[in-house]
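Re: that chain you flagged

S.,

Sorry for the slow reply, it's been a week of failed gels. I finally had a moment to sit down with the sequence you sent. For the record, here it is as I used it:
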Amino acid sequence: MNDISTKATLKGEALRSAILDVAATLFIERGTGGTSIQDIAEALGLSRTAVYYYFKNKEQIQQSLTEEVLSAARKLAGDTVARDDLDPVTALRALVTQHADLILSRPAEFRVADRTEADLSPKQRVSVQNARRNVLENFSHVIERGIREGVFRMVDAHVAAFSLIGMCNWSAWWYKPEGRLDRANVAEIMADMAVNSLLREAARRPEVPDVRESLRLVREDLDYLEKLVLSDSK
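Prediction finished late last night. Pasting the structure tokens below so you have them in one place:
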């Protein structure tokens, strides 16, 4: 590929990305039904023909905004869980870091996916729901493994996974790229919070001896042992 064609490709990718960004903003503000190709073109100072060059209709734009980013989230989570060299703590940290970073890098797409799911076609809606379910299952799998190995506290893995994913997803609404911290710092903070919220050992050493806290830890140990016994008996 020569320099001219390379530059043309990069320009085309940038314009396609700009169309998606503007469309996402308009979809959130007006809804997909209240936004036309003409609205998107005017917001960018383009002709409708220029927009049609990249997307044949508004539905294709919406599909790109929802399915692409969620498919990326599903692939990242799946690739991490498939790695045999990662212990549960490292795997969970990786899951949260990469999921948060993806959202922080593409917040508009996640907001659209969250707000306009009802406007999707049945086929698109199934694809989006399957992607979300797959991410949830991967998070739950890592948390369950951490519980089995005695690394994480005895919690409902499904609820914990929902909570951590929700924490990441919410960043699409409040994160500002021009803010005090860049997205790598924010993703790292969220990963630390996720891991520390589940680590079993951290809660086992109260700074001040306390009878109630000690009893709570004993009950936690009993719950953990009971789950091990029940899983072994199956």
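What I noticed first: Residues 148 and 231 are 9 Å apart (CA to CA).

Talk soon,
D.
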